[in-house]
Amino acid sequence: MLRPEVALRIGARLSGRGIRAVLADEGQVLARSTGEGARAPGSVVRELSGLAPAPVRSVTFDISDPLLDAARRDADPVSVLRVLPRPAHTAALAGHPSPTLRSFVAHRAAVRGGHDLFGTALAPLDLPAAVEAAHGARELGLGAVAVIATGAVGAAGHERAVAEAVLEAVPELRVCLSHEVGGVGLLMRETAAVFNAVLLPAAGRLVDRCRRAAGSLPCWFATSDGGRVSAERLRALPVLGLEAKWAMTLLGAAALHGHHTAAIVARSDEVCTIGEVRDGLPQVAADLPGSLGVRLAAPQPVLTLVGRETFAAHRSRWLPGSPEIPAVFTDGDEDPATVGAACCPPTAWLDIVVHADTTDDMRRRQRDTEERARGMLALSGAAPGSERIAESTATALSYVRAGTYRLRVRATARAAT
Amino acid sequence: MNRPRLPEVLTVAELAHHGPLGRATMLAAAQPDGPVHHVALVSDLEQVGGCRPHTALVLHMPAAQGGWALESALRTAWERGAACVIGPAEATVNRSAVALAERLRIPLFIIDEDPAQYALDLAAAVAAPGAARAQLAARCAAAISEQSSLRGIVGVLNTELPGATVALVGEDGRLLAGRSAAVDGDVSVPVPDVDGRPWARLVARLGAPSASAEETVTTILRLARTQLAANAARPRLSLARRGAQERLLLDALLTDEPGNEAERQAQELGWQLAQNVIAVFVRPALGAPAVAPEVATAGVLAGWYEEFGDQPLVPHQDGWVSWFADTDARRVCAVLRRRLPKVRCALALTAGLGEPGDLRGSLHEAALAASVGVRGRPGTVEYFGALGPRVVLASLPQEQLGPAARSVLSGLLSAPDGEVLVQTLGAVLDCGGSTTRAAARLGVHRNTVSGRLERVRARGVDFDDPEHRLAIHVACFTLAGTGDAGRDAGA
Amino acid sequence: MSEVTIEDLPALAAGAHLLMSGAGQADIEGVLHWVSALLAEHGPVPLVRPDDVPEDTVCAAVGLVGSVTAQAELPMAGDEPERAVRALEARLGTQLGAVTVLDTATVNALLPVAAAALLGLPLVDCDGMGRVFPLIHQTSYALAGVPLTPLAAVGATGDTVVLDAADERAERLLRAAVNVSGGWLFTALYPTTTGTLPRAGIVGAVSRALAVGRALLDAADVDDIAVRLAAQTASRVLGTGRVVDLEHRTRPADAHYPAHPSSIVVRTHAQPVRSIRLEAQNELLLALVDGALAAAVPDVICLIDPHDGSVIDIEAVTVGREVQVVTVPAAPVWHTPQGLALVGPRAFGFPIRHPREGRVRHPGEVRS
Predict the structure, then answer these.
(1) Which residues are CB-contacts of A375 (< 8 A; sequence separation ≥ 6)?
(2) Is the alpha carbon torsion for A110, C84, C259, C236 positive or negative?
(3) Residue after which a domain boundary falls, among A144, A165, A196
(4) Are A356 and A403 in contact (CB under 8 A)?
(5) What are B12-22's pLDDT values in tens digits?
(6) Which fold has domain B130-234?
(7) Entry pTM
(8) What angle do CA B68, B69, B71 make, to 5 degrees?
(9) Fold for domain B10-127?
(10) Where are the beta strands (DSSP E) in B369-417?
(11) Which Gene Ontology CC terms are recorded (chain A) (predicted)?
(12) Which domain holds residue C252?
């Protein structure tokens, strides 16, 4: 297919001390480069830029591997502050069910406050208690606090108020708010907020390193939903990039084979990892347990793991088998994740609860949410006018007031840079 | 045999075409040819289960409330053998309901009016099919009267008759207008020419044959007859007359001393005969069905003029003659090879070309080339100058050789399928003894050819004997060329 | 007599998920974690048949009324079961000798275990639904004439509600309280004696949920699930395919039912391709295969992920998702005329007969 213009981009994956990168025009790989050591990212980017027959538009880094390493190895524990109408009576309910997550939490407190799903306050916010908890965290030498208020997905006022008060009282403490990632479910948002808090220092270092390597090129970061965000956003919400590797692998494998929609089977020695790309975006879902085994509110690729032999014996069970969804196989030799990083588009994801009395009202809220998602794309370098809503669903919530909907909107656009 | 007369019944297609369903939006058009015997207004899904076969179901809220209800109604309608389902505008119609209607082959309509009133209108139309048909007949009559060509008239019939395809077929079986799919249709109405003699038939194939549909279609086909005959007569008559006149003129011109009068007439007709011309002799391919000469002439002339415009074509002996004011025979040959197969007529044509020269000389060569050409496939064009050694065969005095050839092959010709055997033998000898190639040329299986050869040998014709071989080959060639052994050999 | 141990909890949760009939499961890991901690602290909970205890033993059903999604957003404080039961006991003027189950779906299969552990009472192997229904008076208890009230309910805010009302009024009053309490209330209701349970309860419901859960967890793949589930519950697979449409408010909403109706359309893979339309309002209520009613409430209709065998909630369904549609027959009490009148398709606004009611045969049927 002839493209009106080439759009050369560099996709790069940091892993351990190494970097692998490609110079690509969509699925067309023009050059590859690898390097190792502290200076490698810069030289790899310069080398690929030098090989480019036309100006390189941008470089996108997938830093999911070093982020996961940071979470697994050298993470500093953080404090958790829940905002609830009543504190839990037992440790099992006060804490998080995941031992992994608990291992990151050195200090925990609950203060009165929070909203219901319809945005009504359940209890007045106890700000002095929040400030006191922040002092407690600081006294333990903790650098960050994750704030999770019930109902913040629909009404974030209490989280913001806590953040303001804490930052004023203890300015050296960094605050991560659960509603910034979004999603329904206090524990899943807590996971996301805690990961953000834990990863803040590592994310800051990695983002700085990548920006230096990018030099004058616009610099983006791959995310778990198959999109990319700005350096500032990834620095603040590193959890968004935590599972980027598989999202980029799916995207890249599809792009390498020239498909916009495909079922991807990534084969390793023993296991096949199967995912799907539809209309140029990996299929994702919120509330999946990711590489760290904890359910997360942020969207991640939907993956199925099958033993290689089982897959070979029952292929049809795992593949859609429809001609519109061709199967693409990759053995990882071509490093599809770097290609995915080179061609990932700006994306936006919103997962919120709204209340609407009439169908028209619900549609209006849905349109508003879609508008918000379009707006968010601009921050990720979307070409103006190219925004499209890839997915927009409204699901009625069970057993609550009629008219309570969960809205999920996914938007994407063509990258400008 | 007396066929019991069925009650008059309209089909869904008829109701959609010239009945109240015309006001409805058709969402799924599967199987529109089902008859509609009854109309039922349904406000409760369970009532759908009680409907009689061939009922048009008009759904009233709440029977159509929600996509599931419509799908459930469609399903039950299918189980009950309903004719169609008509939903109110408020019904939730979605892709899956439309897809289901198509899958179950239940026509689905949506109306934007009060279902109760609509059901009454529909019931009235179903109860009085005559009224709806009269309306259709009136509409067709008006549309037909505005047409001035065969195609136009048959086109109207194809557009207006619901669920039927229509063709106009000549007495010779040739498609004159309309759709070839209709040629063997269920309904056939003879169309006489202006003098009342048989000329053609209007044939219609019905999507869902039924006594009532047959009657409607027959009525409307009859309406079209007069207009068709009037439109057909003009060009046909003039062509036949023109052919006869020109044949006489050409015969006169080909005599040793054509008179001044003939030359003047030729000039009037625009025949350019003064300078060098390349003559073309057109003949029907061997094996073409026998057609009365005057019918064939009219058909061939019409087809020729359609393809070649003003290029003259004049009946002559057992074929037709044309000539091109050109000196490049190969160019003319190429033109003919491309366009002769496109001439639309009942006969498959072949042609021979003479060398450029005066008409008489060139025509003589063209006739010789044509005698080779007729043995080829339909559309074959032979150029005298390119015949090579075959010129010997072309120049054989076939008229004189005929009796001798018949005598040599009398053993074969006395067989019931003697002509077939002669043609098969000729083909095998033409193909150097290869039964495979001969079979391909004759369009039959190789085993058939082998079987026929066995019978040829059994009748004492020893074509393997080198001493007899050439004589037998020439005899076969002669008989094939004179048409004594050329008919339906491959059938 | 048997017991519910920590090891049983994952199977109980999995079985309870399937019996939701597609209603939102949300994240129950927090509740599972808490109940596990309680069993670790208090030991296994005795699971008794109604006739294992004296027939005049006072008991009440316990469970969450409201939204599990809301509960995932607003977790329990942990003292609600005790407070609700104490408030009910105070109103009754007597102490409970056992707890029983409102419905064995989602957290409501687990919370009675928590209540029994906290209160030191046995759990009666019996519930009032055998699955989940949206209204609290849609129970076998109510069908047998056991009064719904007095009931006591406690929410995350710590407010306590004690209600005395006729069954349907109680439903509406409690629903109003749920809506202002963060979306759920832990409730103790249907106070009665264990002697009435053999005729008023769906006996063996907890064991059944456990058996269903084990079938889901032990199966090797989705085909194995179908076999095991069919062996346990006479379930049927209606088809496997891809979700091609999601629609909302496809039917007029009944004001008495929380949440709005929606529809899911699945196109099956196997030839001939069929269209399975699922009608949902809270739960999946109807399944029509090419327009023909294949399954209907009160039978459980649920979606299973053909890749990993997990149960898919309506809320998680997206266009393009692969699903297997499975139906599990309801407890026999629901197939009686009285049962179908309370929870059959007509009770949910569908003017059609449940397949078990048989179809009226009309003279001259042309196709079957």
Answers:
(1) none
(2) positive
(3) A196
(4) yes
(5) 887 887 778 87
(6) Beta-Lactamase (3.30.450)
(7) 0.68
(8) 65
(9) 3.40.1390
(10) 381-383
(11) cytosol
(12) 235-352
